[in-house]
Amino acid sequence: MNSSTSVPRLDGPAKVTGAARYTADHNEPDQLHGVLVGAPVPAGHVLDIGSADALRQPGVRHVLSAADMPTAHADLAAASSPPLASLFLPMQGPEIHYSGQPVAIVLAETLEAAEGAASLVQVRCRTDEFTVPDSAPATTPSPESGYNAIGMVRFRKGDAEAAVAASPVQAGGEYLQPARHANPMEPSAVLAVWNDDRLTVHDAAQHVYAVRSNLAAAFGIDPGKVRVHCRHTGGGFGAKAYVWQHEILAAMAAKVVGRPVKLVLTRSEMYTIVGYQARMRQNVRLGAAEDGRLTGVVHEVDNTTAVTDDYIEFGSAPSGSLYATPAILLDQKVRRGNVNLPTFMRSPIDGPGTWALGSAMDELARALDMDPLDLRLINHADADPSDGRPWSSKKLKEAYAEGARRFGWRKRGRGGTRDGDWLLGWGMADSTQGQFRFPSEARVRLAADATARLEAGYTDIGAGSATIFPQIAASVLGLPPTAVRAASGDSDLPFAGPTFGSGTTIGMGAAVQDAAQKIIKQLADLAGWPAEEVHTQDGHLIHGTRSRSLTDVMRDARVDELIGDGAFSLPGGAPADAGDAERATRTFGAVFVEVGVDPDLGLLRLRRATGVYSVGRVINPRTARSQMIGGVVWGWGMAAMEASLYEPNLGRWLSTDLAGVPLPVNADIPPAIDIAFIDEFDEYAGPLGAKGIGELGATGVAAAVANAVYDAIGKRVRDLPITPEKLIDLTM
């Protein structure tokens, strides 16, 4: 079979029947249930932890405070952040830096006992003045921040400010985006077990090896003494990408009490213990000649962060990557406040960045009286605008054409066309996502009965990994995907790159392909045929007109099992890169939407959407299409619904549950979401020819929606989400 074939999810039956086990489904004999006690103030010092009432409750065994916890080993302070989410570890001293910061852990025989006792713990603290991150001054990020390595804090090509000021046509403005929390279906959870000096952990994570290395650093032990399990993660979206404090604290608590500790975060704690998308303010200024050609692009961004660490959301990146222009200025700043640290969330960097840039481009098209699609075609970048490198592959023009055809963009109605009470609008924007690559390893075992076992430590977060990696192995071996079983999500298995950064398929898929190809070579040797002249199909090894079943080849050679060890490595042994050094690597696409606006009630509805994408080779069109539909839904939530608000008087998140945060549901999303891919193979991205798609689908959607709103009612919304009160205010 061909590896670019639509294959139903191999993990589907296990998930819908409940057979798939997630972290909180695991238990250990004699385990204690842990519940965190959070700081009641956003800034100050803990003076005393009153635990007497809690300890009197039946089943409660311990109330641990900073005085009970071991001091983190010096290796942790030297760990790379990321993947250590934050260099600040709570419960190492009395300092309080944000509301909800863990200051105590209650351990009990049952979860109910621990929860009840936690409400009785009395935290006496000194309250200090706190800084509201939203209104803090914007400053240059610290050069000590590990997040500096992910992007450019400041980039200049030419004199963009002067070029924009001198341009006959100018557009842009300030675009705001609130903080947002990921809210995966499965909350973060951890189960930590010590056996002498060896630590075993079940963890809801997106990379078990990062958890292993950081836990080892926290205790100053060899990583080989830490084993981390996570076969299934119930959604991550970045909140489980890096290693957060609760993972370390649970292992510390288990070490202190000498019993396994299970800690499952509540939905409320998912707002204060793990990261979220930062609030961002973006200023985009575009200059163009009268024919629409860009003369300069200025994109200045600031995002909120914690007082403990500088997290940087590089939203300016798309402005250095999407359009041909002689002058570019990109600038990143942070606003530090008393809040927990943000993190990358699905479609980081380019998701926020395309919201601002895509809106500004639409404003420029209106100023020029030009079709927004034509403006993009005129400014299409045939090479990377920042440094002139050729693209590893790019078929954005083809995506424009196919998207416009499928959507009917050139035949669309006039903006503000009425359908009953609704005014209709049409908008479009670019989609793009940078690409990360991570080294990976895989082992494939082929048995004499023509079944195979794939072994690698990748984690399935619901995006299709549990299907496409067995599918790749099966394709090379000429077997049905159901003939390949997978052992995954275990740090004792061959090293797998992380399941984030849209880099999973590039690296892990290439390693699987390599391992399976090494088995083909062994089969060819057993059959006495030249390895470069054979191929497989339907369980047979084929050379010219000759064909032998894999079972016969192995049985005749008296071989019970063949093992192939495969790998995908990066130049110089790098732990990650952004693609081939000689070529710029990105995915691209175009998204078109139709919205309806009720100007009397301020209602906004998505009526249909089309997305066409240039992403290299698509391994499994079925799972890929599902990913992109999910991305459009995610982008609609960003555009029209989602916001996590920091309450400036209390110094905490206003709503920390799903009751106060609207999310898209079935009633919000029409069935008319049309997804297509341009036929493409990117030989420079990796041996598979594929690039990442997991985050691309959410980029550009918010801008397309805002542009469609303008088309419908003639007013520009620059402050997400586009909620009813904004539309009513605009249309009155």
What does the radius of gyration come to? Answer: 27 Å
Which CATH architecture of the domain at 23-129 and 182-271 would you pick? 2-Layer Sandwich
Low-confidence stretches: none
Shape field: globular
Strand content: 25-35%
User: Biggest sheet: strands, sense, closure?
Assistant: 7 strands, mixed
What is the CATH fold-level name of the domain at 23-129 and 182-271? Aldehyde Oxidoreductase, domain 4
So how many helices? 16
- Structural class of the secondary elements? alpha+beta
Distance between the termini: 60 Å
Compute the number of strand runs.
30
The CATH H-level homologous superfamily of the domain at 23-129 and 182-271: Aldehyde oxidase/xanthine dehydrogenase, molybdopterin binding domain
The CATH class designation of the domain at 23-129 and 182-271 is Alpha Beta
Mean pLDDT: 96
Q: Helical amount among residues, as a percent range?
A: 10-25%
Order of strands side by side in the largest beta sheet? 3-5-1-13-10-11-12
